[in-house]
Amino acid sequence: MSALTDLSLADALTGLAAKDFSARELATAHVEAVAAASTLNAFVVETPERALADAEASDARRARGEALPLDGIPLAIKDLFCTKGIRTTAASRILGDFTPTYESTVTSQLWRDGAVMLGKLNLDEFAMGSSNETSAFGPVKNPWRRTGDTAVLVPGGSSGGSAAAVAARLCLGATGTDTGGSIRQPAAFTGIVGIKPTYGRCSRWGIVAFASSLDQAGPMTRTVTDAALMLRSMAGHDPKDSTSANRAVPDYTKALTGDVRGLKIGIPKEYRIEGVPAEIGRLWEQGIEWLKAAGAEIREISLPHTSQSLPTYYIVAPAEASSNLARYDGVRFGARQPGRTLPEMYEKTRGAGFGREVRRRILIGTYVLSAGYYDAYYLKAQKVRSLIARDFTEAYKEVDAILAPATPSAAFAAGEKSADPLAMYLNDVFTVTANLAGLPALAVPAGLNSQGLPLGLQVIGRAFDEETVLRIGHVIEKAAAFTARPDNWWRV
Ligand code: GLN
What we know:
Distance between the termini: 15 Å
Order of helices and strands: HHHEHEHEHEHEEHEHEHHHHEHHEEH
Number of strands: 11
Mean pLDDT: 97
Strand order of the largest sheet: 1-3-2-4-6-5-10-11-9-7-8
Radius of gyration: 21 Å
CATH class of the largest domain: Alpha Beta
Number of domains: 2
Bound molecules: glutamine
Number of helices: 16
Low-confidence stretches: none
Helix content: 25-40%
């Protein structure tokens, strides 16, 4: 049955419609692939019975001629989305056996459209990280390895389980969330497609909050068309999230015309960063050539506040995180650890429940929000954030979209950066800007590095113009003709 797991989401829909196979067969193939890939540690909860039940319901709908947009498509869900009746952990011990009595809006829309639930995916604890090494459930392994080398590589983070599962063909698509790069960086590290939509495009309701002004959900898939299909179901206005945008959701696949003639693509000169390996620069040049050859117009642009983005992000994100995570106190939320006094109970609960990286973020966040430092750090970061957003507004007077690398390197080895938070934070240098400015941004696999590892390019668009972003990504995808895939070393 391995052929069924090799299909793209779009081809699986075609095959289901043509009755080449049933949703049950498709689900069974994926359930088996998931069970055989436990070495990757991509899943924290597998839901095979639910998958088969969903698939049978899907087959019945199709037989009645009532097939839905994603009917019968096996998907897996980052364990940051609340799923009714299925344990939801954010990969943190503090959530204990929390089993939501409600479903996040984004996942409910996927089920509304007929998708099949395979299980919950590993991630960095509370989505804080770039390597999936901060998870309370242990690290996720990247299905890719360097040529001739069996060293374990990280899949990126925080949506590392999502990226590994999609790349290893354990599901046809996965949900991710992106606060500073957590969809795009792992997508680039595993040779898949990921899009962070415009802030407000997908509802945040029912997603465990990290930094509420930056968090956005998005799809992770093997093709741009698949991302377009999944995003259509995930996006849309939700009265339960006051920051969700009240705008119609287009059929994103219609934007994939293959035609970028006359589009103006900006190349931000500040993204040529010292110390970034030459192969990243070459890939970027290659992307420029592909778009030129397809008839796009390339323009150098300036985003002058780029160098301030990482410091700004690493003030704003921890500040919001420290506030969001205050609710895990063993009273309102969180697995309680007993103490003799109330303060001792709080301390024990939070001390035992949060891992090192989460504690670091809470400390930084509390510090930058504290009286005396608020103006110097948090307020200043908010001002710089406005300047970063303004850089993009200015640029979009000249260009329709921006092309940049997705990450400053290919996937690195497990343990290589986990002792050095600053080195880890540098992973986000090309991605945090889109979050700070609230813009849609896509990572698309564009080639392999000298060690046989995937590298991604990034397309950043105007607010609510996911269509142009996807259209350009689709053209890059075609030009790159990225067909490489990891071999099945993990399969038991
Ligand atoms: N790596 C970034 C961080 O650790 C981004 C994480 C994310 O986007 N969720 O904050």
